[in-house]
Amino acid sequence: MKKNIFKQIILKFILSFVLILLINLLIFTICVLNIKNNHSVSERIDTIMNHVSVTNSAITLDEKGQSLLKQKKLWLLAIDNKTGKVQYSYQKPQAIPNQYFYTEVAKFSRYYLNDYPVFTYAKGNYLFVIGFPKNSYARYSNNYLSISMIKKIPFIFLLTILLNCAYFILLYIYSNYRLRKKILPLVKMIMQLPNGLSSSIKPIYGLEEIIQALEQTDNKLKEEQKFRQDWIAGIAHDIKTPLSIVLSNVAIAKDYAHNPELNKYLDPILTETYYIQNVLNDLNIFARLNNQACSLQKENIYILSFIKEVIIQILNQEIWENIDIAFHAEEDLKNVSLQLDPFLFSRVIHNLIYNAILHNPDGCQITISLTKINEKICLTILDDGIGVTNEQLKQLNTLDDQPFDIAFIRTTGIGLYISKKIIQLNNGRMVLSSKYKEFFKVEIFL
């Protein structure tokens, strides 16, 4: 994997570097060729001088030569080698003298004549001077350079820099796109790991070892999740048997003991035993809900009769001496059925009622109502107990947004946490409201 990825990255950057060098070399070559083509002064002078005839009696420039001079805005003069006088001129500017000394000839043959870039050509007994427009060429010693080309050099340089920048920006965008295309699926898989991967990972070239590691991690997490679920289920099953014995013996003792002082000790044992039994059921469900592989066993249940049966089961425990439970339902809901997991939904009702009883040791009135609101079935469980503060209510409403600490199972409300999860899995919504020392209300919309 390392070899493949780094080999690809290094190879691509080497190729990119070579490519940009070739592009720069191409630009440089084009510029040089352009300079060469535009600056062939010697060829132009040779062409013009081919149209100049020198005889003993006169110097003549044919029509073709005159046309070339006019077209290029050039001028021509012939200086006698012996006298230094101008013997012939064509389109000579007025500022150009008609007599020259050897020192003057030596100077302008290398540089300028009255700011005109000039070039010399010896033919016969004459020195021909061909003048170019001012600011057309830059003369330095025996060489020259086009002024227009000199002016273009900064633009060419800037254009080259811009092309290089554009190239590297496009290279960055392309590399980023390719990298994201490869890495994004991996990021999504890593984010899915806590919940378990739902499907096998498609192979990605160059990332085989990472994908293999992700699959191994996913399998290990699923194995640990299954082990945890099986372990909790086994513990719950092992504890339920002695709990059942304790419950039955305490219930028998209460039936035969008519001593109020003794009942004072038996009632808490019975209550806490039921509480432990309920917690074990919740832990079992908690492990099941945290296993993403679990599926709901939904059935079509008549909601009204189902809730009545659950309430009767709770009342039959006969341990709620200070608790009054009242149930109200709209008559037209008698034949209404919903697709729910009956076991899990039963746990929701148990948890919410147990929660009201547990947090009101001095007793309270629990009112359960079933109504229809805006095409939704609403189950309301209201108690007139001590309620909770605004801060506690806020904490309860955000239970599913924060990691659940099993160490504080009795105080943080595992029953509410699990109930909310179950309702969400059944496509419902649970709303909590309370006023301290007045009431606590849970509304479930299905």
From TrEMBL:
EC number: 2.7.13.3
MF terms in GO: phosphoprotein phosphatase activity; phosphorelay sensor kinase activity
Catalytic EC class: transferase
Alphabetic keyword roster: Kinase, Membrane, Phosphoprotein, Transferase, Transmembrane, Transmembrane helix, Two-component regulatory system
A GO CC term assigned to this protein in UniProt: plasma membrane
CDD domains: HATPase (cd00075), HisKA (cd00082)
Any single GO BP term: cellular response to phosphate starvation
Location in the cell: Membrane
SMART domains for this protein: HATPase_c, HisKA
Residues passing through the membrane, by range: 9-35, 153-174
Span of domain Histidine kinase: 234-446
Pfam families per the UniProt record, alphabetical: HATPase_c, HisKA
InterPro entries: BphY/WalK/GraS-like (IPR050351), HATPase_C_sf (IPR036890), HATPase_dom (IPR003594), His_kinase_dom (IPR005467), HisK_dim/P_dom (IPR003661), HisK_dim/P_sf (IPR036097), Sig_transdc_His_kin-like_C (IPR004358)
Catalyzed chemical reaction(s): ATP + protein L-histidine = ADP + protein N-phospho-L-histidine
Protein name per Swiss-Prot or TrEMBL: histidine kinase
Record organism: Enterococcus columbae DSM 7374 = ATCC 51263
